[in-house]
Amino acid sequence: MALLLGFLLLLLLELCGNTLSLGSRSSTKGTEVSELELPATNYETKDSYKAGPIGGLFQIVHIFLRVVQPNDFPEDILRKILQKKFDLSTDYEKPENVVLTLKIIYYEIGVIICAVLGLLFVILMPLVGFCFGLCRCCNKCGGEMHQRQKKNGPFLRKCFAVSLLVISIFISIGIIYGFVANHHLRAQIEKTRKLADSNFRDLRTLLNGAPAEISYILSQYTTTKEKAFSDLDNVKSLLGGGIHEQLRPKVIPALDDIKAMAEAIKETKEALLNVNNTLKELKKSSAQLNTSLSDVKRDLEQSLNDPMCSAPPVATTCNNIRTSLSQLDDNTNMDQLPSLDKPIDKINDILQTNLSSLVQQGYKSFNDIPEMVKNQTTDIISDVKSTLNSIGTDLESIGEQIPIQDQLSNFMGYINDTETYIHRNLPTLEEYDSYRWLGGLVVCCLLTLVVIFYYLGLLCGTCGYDRNATPTRRGCVSNTGGIFLMVGAGVSFLICWILMTIVVLTFVVGANVEKLLCEPYQNRKLFQVLDTPYLLNENWKHYLSGMVFNKPDINLTFEQVYSDCKENKGIYATLKLENSYNISEHLNIQEHAGNISNDFQNMKVNIDNIVLLDEAGRKNLMDFSFSGIDAINYNIYLAELSKAPTKANLLSFADDLEVKANHLPHGSLKQSLKNNAQTIRTIHRSEVIPLEQSMSSVYQSIKELQQKSSGLGMKVTNTLSSLDSAQDFLTTRISSVIVEESQKYGNTIVGYFERYLQWVKISITDKIAACKPVATALDSAVDVFLCSYIIDPMNLFWFGIGKATVFLLPALIFAVKLAKYYRRMDSEDVYEDMENGNIGFHRHHSTQTV
Known about the structure:
Layout: H1 2-20, H2 55-68, H3 75-82, H4 88-91, H5 95-107, H6 109-137, E1 146-147, H7 153-190, H8 192-233, H9 235-304, H10 312-324, H11 341-350, H12 355-367, H13 369-376, H14 378-401, H15 404-464, H16 476-522, H17 525-530, H18 543-549, H19 558-566, H20 571-574, H21 583-586, H22 589-601, H23 615-625, H24 634-641, H25 650-662, H26 668-709, H27 712-767, H28 772-822, E2 827-832, E3 841-846
Parallel strand pairs: 1-2
Antiparallel strand pairs: 2-3
Helix pairs in contact: 1-15, 1-28, 6-16, 7-15, 7-28, 8-14, 8-15, 8-27, 8-28, 9-11, 9-12, 9-13, 9-26, 9-27, 14-22, 15-16, 15-28, 16-28, 19-28, 22-27, 23-27, 24-26, 25-26
């Protein structure tokens, strides 16, 4: 046990020294901290142990020990003993030693009482057995083969039998505990080799993994550099694109407005041409309609000159028709509408300058910003790459200078020597354990033999007992049962003191180890004792920090180290190595990042020569605003085009004319009027309807043209104002935008490096050489091997054997009492009735007389 604890302490201190020997661990980060993770390390040894079903029996023993020893862990007593302030061999009469002795007795009072009772049992039982045997040899103490018959004899026999059976069952349970504990202890000892090997493999993994983890961390700089190089190669899209996006909200709308104005000029020309051509067609159609209506009107007038119209009934109809002929006149006057040739000529002059091409040049000039940035930052990007490469070279040299592997190789030899020692002595331990197992088996078998005698005695005695048989005539089976009971009692006297000696010895050792080591280790009070200032070294306040740093004032405790190792923290944070080697100073993030920042601060990007629209384009816009499009009197056109082509509806007029003709007598007048009505319908269908559709279309076109040209001067003014604002923004603010985006871009590159270094720092302080295997090895040595593998089964063994041994005392008493009722007696009581009354007497007869 001392070897294991010493080994683990040496491991802890050696890891401290190895970590202290590390040089600076500078690195760079190219990805997010969350994206960089050390490879997971898998360990074989489980960090918890479960006893299985037998754990319930162990808990029973623990409850018993808490009853026997209810006092708290004696921290003060242990501190004084460790400080060597308690030495009975020299100063036992000192008051403080007397008080300390009384405290120890008070703490151990439960164990002492149990041990004293056990020793009394060991001393008295052989004496009692010897005296009991002599007494029976003298026909005393039940040794006389004579049984006096009593009225309550059957009742006593049954009580004795039941009591012995119950006690035998209790003894059997204790024997089962002993068998189980004996076998469990041997099975756990056989697992010791596997437990030790797994812990040694885990410790080797820990020691071998630390250099590999450092190499892995340093190798991740390549990933960081590749990411940074990728961003540097993409300076066109990252930096140039960033500048472009910052300027875009102000520049692009102005260019879009100019582009829209260029399209508006073209659309205006198309609209003017369309309207002008349509108006010419309308004038022709209107003149044709007027001619057709005049012809019909003239034809009707000639028809009304017919002599029939002189007759009174017809004259009225003819007069009505003649009166309505004025409705056949044209209702429009298209010739009065002015021509649009002059505005069209002005638009054609404006279109001589290709405004769309000028706008595209502005777009191109603005969109060339990323390419300009790329061309102007070539030298800076090269310098930054050189800086990153030099940092990578420094990291590689640092990795080569770390001497951790050489120092760990020496300690690896110590692990190998310790493992060899354990493997060399483990067969001896297993051999001794086989002797112990054989001895425990003999003890359990002796108790089993006694219980078997009792069970056989009860079985034979109960089955062979005949209530009608006299004591001298009892059967062979019953007599055999009584003999078995006496043999069991005799064997009990022979072995019980030996068993109790074993129980007392194992009880004292097991109980004290459980209460003074196992329990305080599990609740960590043992560490609190070891962490007492000036305890292990009267000159050191904190022993562990004195061993690690030779600075005993640093608050480094065993409990804190054990807790951190249980949480799998790195050895750097666990041992507070920042007091000896400050990783933050060696991984000076600001110093390394400053070199890269300085390169970016020297970045100069000049893109002041961007022209969104030249003077020709501006003059073109102004000419458009003065083209007079907005001054055209669109209302004249709209008013004329909104009229109907004819004064009356020709269809209604034709229908009315036909109705009137039908009232006339048959003749040439009637037929002429009907023919004219049909002609009017034809004119309406072939001339009026197409004219109406053309007029409606031109009306909508002029309406749209009016809306587009409305406020044309203001629109052009606003467009030019937006253009001037955007151009001014480029002239005055582009330098600040370049600086801002350059800082963002530089911070992004530097950020990769800073985050990488931060990850390196976190990894070294919290993750590299995570010492959980050390805590697991300590748990395996103390909590698992000593307490769970050895002490718990040993405590269960003495608990079961002690229980069985204690119950041997009442068992042998009842066995001796019960044997009288089963064995065949040499003599018995005889009763004779008197001839003259009921009063009688008894005599003693020998078996021969009977």
